[in-house]
Structures are given as C-alpha cells and as structure tokens.
C-alpha cells in the first residue's frame, strides 16, 4: 500500500463537504438558466401570465434535473454514512462523480433550449 493511502481517508467529512458544496452550487445554477420575461410591454395580468407559458418546458426540465440531482445527493449521503475511511480511488471516483454533477446546469439549459429535438 502506498504512503498516500496510509495517510489519506482519515476524515470522510471532507469528501462530504466538497460534495455538498458542488451540489449546492449546481442546484443553484439550474434556476439561473431560466430568465424572467421582460415586463415593459405588459398592460394586464393576463399578458404577464401568458408570457410565462413559453417557460413551462424549461420549468419542467428544471424540476426533473433538480429531482435527479436530489436523488444523487441522497444516494451519496447514504454511501458516505457507511464509509469510515477512504483511499485515493474513492477520492478520484468522487471527483469524477462531481464533474458529472457540475455539468447538470449546462445540460439542463441545453435541453431547455432544444426541447423539441429527440
């Protein structure tokens, strides 16, 4: 066993803190992709509500992405509760997993812009 693996993994909470931070930022960025309609030309409430209709697909994708990320976050939390120590392999696996999580805001925005394509 390498020297690194002997000293690494003494505090699983570091991985948990990093993961929680990445999830929090990624989930926050999801909603920032939905832009409010400009309100300068509205004269009635009906027009305001009508302006929201084109955003419904983006909100649907936002909710689905948020829930998917929530499932991943909860699953990882369960895993981390059962891990007492980790090594370099778990560290790099977690980093790769967080790379995928950090792509969610982009993929959500992309899907929201191109909802009509398969």
Walk me through what this model shows:
This protein has helices spanning 3-7, 12-32, 45-52, 56-81, 88-102, 104-113. By secondary structure, it is mainly alpha-helical. The longest helix has 26 residues, at 56-81.
**Share of residues in strands:** under 5%
Helices and strands, in order, run as HHHHHH
Number of H- or I-type helical stretches: 6
Rg over CA atoms: 20 Å
State the end-to-end distance: 48 Å
Shape: elongated
* Uncertain segments: none
* Largest sheet geometry: none
Task: Write down how many β-strands occur, each being a DSSP E stretch of 2 or more residues.
Answer: 0
Q: Give me the secondary-structure category.
A: mainly alpha
| Quaternary | single chain
Note the topology.
Layout: H1 3-7, H2 12-32, H3 45-52, H4 56-81, H5 88-102, H6 104-113
Helix pairs in contact: 2-4, 2-5, 2-6, 4-6
What are the defining features of this structure?
118 residues, 72% helix, mainly alpha, elongated, 0% strand
Summary?
The chain has 118 residues and is an all-alpha fold.
């Amino acid at each position: 066993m390498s020297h690194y693996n002997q000293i690494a993994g003494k505090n699983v909470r570091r991985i948990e803190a990093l993961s929680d931070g990445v999830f929090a930022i990624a989930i926050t960025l999801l909603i920032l992709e939905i832009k409010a309609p400009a309100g300068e030309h509205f004269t009635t409430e009906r027009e305001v509500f009508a302006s929201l209709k084109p955003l419904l697909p983006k909100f649907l994708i936002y909710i689905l992405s948020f829930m998917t990320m929530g499932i991943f976050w909860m699953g990882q939390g369960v895993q981390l509760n059962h891990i007492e120590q980790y090594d370099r392999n778990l560290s790099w696996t977690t980093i790769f997993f967080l790379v995928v999580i950090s792509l969610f805001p982009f993929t959500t925005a992309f899907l929201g812009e191109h909802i009509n394509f398969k």
